[in-house]
């Protein structure tokens, strides 16, 4: 294995993807927009590295540039929309949710769609 690759994978250095994801995370934490200097400091990378990675992310539409400031871009939104929880999660939760619903003390109004118990009657005392 290449020495540089080994150093990055064993914690001896930072890879390009790690730097790019660190910048994306810093943008997420910042909330709206941030400048190169703010992001470089937040990620612990040189300003030139942050600028180079941000420009590559702009080309991929993962980041948008407005003047001298950056924000998360539309490509990340599209990727996020495609994410789905593990296929077995819904099936695994069905029985416990059914049991919780069985504890509802309401007198017929029933829980609203998607609720575990009726918030109109049972929210005061719980199921």
Please provide a written account of the structure:
It is elongated, with a radius of gyration of 23 Å. It is built from 6 helices and 3 strands. The chain has a 3-stranded antiparallel β-sheet with strand order 1-3-2. The chain has 2 domains: 3-80, Winged helix-like DNA-binding domain superfamily/Winged helix DNA-binding domain (Arc Repressor Mutant, subunit A, Orthogonal Bundle); 87-127, no CATH class. Strand 2 and strand 3 form a beta hairpin. Residues 1-9 have low confidence and may be disordered. 54% of the residues lie in helices and 8% in strands. By secondary structure, it is mainly alpha-helical. It has helices spanning 3-9, 16-30, 36-43, 47-59, 74-82, 87-102; strands at 34-35, 63-66, 69-72.
In short:
α2 packs across α4 and α3 packs across α4. The protein is built from 6 helices and 3 strands, in the order ααβααββαα. Helices cover 54% and strands 8% of the residues.
């Amino acid at each position: 294995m290449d020495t540089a690759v080994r150093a990055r994978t064993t914690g001896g250095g930072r890879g390009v993807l790690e730097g790019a994801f660190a910048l994306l995370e810093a943008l997420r934490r910042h909330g709206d927009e941030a400048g190169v200097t703010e992001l470089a400091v937040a990620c612990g990378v040189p300003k030139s590295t942050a600028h180079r990675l941000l420009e590559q992310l702009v080309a991929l539409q993962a980041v948008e540039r407005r003047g001298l400031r950056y924000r998360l871009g539309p490509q990340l939104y599209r990727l996020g929309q495609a994410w789905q929880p593990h296929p077995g999660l819904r099936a695994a939760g069905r029985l416990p949710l059914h049991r919780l619903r069985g504890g509802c003390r309401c007198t017929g109004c029933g829980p609203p769609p998607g609720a575990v118990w009726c918030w109109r009657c049972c929210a005061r005392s719980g199921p």
